[in-house]
Amino acid sequence: MHEKPMFRRAAKARRGFVAADGWYEWMTTPQGKVPWYHHRMDGHLSLMAVLWETWTSSEEHLESCVVLTQAANEDCKEVHDRMPVLLDSHEVEPWLSSGALPQQPGIGVIDRHPVSREVNSAHKNHPGLVKPLPGLFNQEYGE
């Protein structure tokens, strides 16, 4: 956010956060890209640091935001090399008031599992999109 000119103004005055149950990352495999759902192990919401911007022209008005990313921690790096900047509740106020970003989460904070490629379709939106894909050895015989 400090390196890209397009984010400089927002980094100074338009900081925010988005609360989410989790997020998806795609892992490149020999069989193609596979989506993985990431979420906090403690069941709390993931509070992701964002910058937001307002764009107005004579014809349109647009509100947008960008989720800040950082190098993936140990829980996530096998799937993807980046992850959202996650805020714990006590880190929200320092981020909003002064732009203080936290360190990446420690080991054992994030869990993940592969999910259906349906997550890539804008026409699909149901709770099953976060359910783990069945694996070869995690099912009972005859099911």
Strand and helix layout:
Layout: H1 8-13, E1 15-20, E2 22-29, E3 32-40, E4 46-56, E5 61-67, E6 69-71, E7 82-84, E8 86-87, H2 89-98, E9 110-114
Antiparallel strand pairs: 1-4, 2-3, 3-9, 4-5, 4-8, 6-7
Q: Can you walk through the features of this model?
A:
Strand 2 (22-29) and strand 3 (32-40) form a beta hairpin. This protein is mainly beta and 143 residues long. The protein contains two helices and nine strands. It starts with 7 loop residues before the first helix and ends in a 29-residue tail after the last strand. The chain has helices at residues 8-13, 89-98, and strands at 15-20, 22-29, 32-40, 46-56, 61-67, 69-71, 82-84, 86-87, 110-114. It has a single domain (5-118), classed as hypothetical protein yedk fold (Alpha-Beta Complex). The strands form three sheets. Strands 1, 4, 5 and 8 form a four-stranded antiparallel beta sheet that branches. A three-stranded antiparallel beta sheet has the order 2-3-9, with no helix packed on it. Strands 6-7 form a two-stranded antiparallel ribbon.
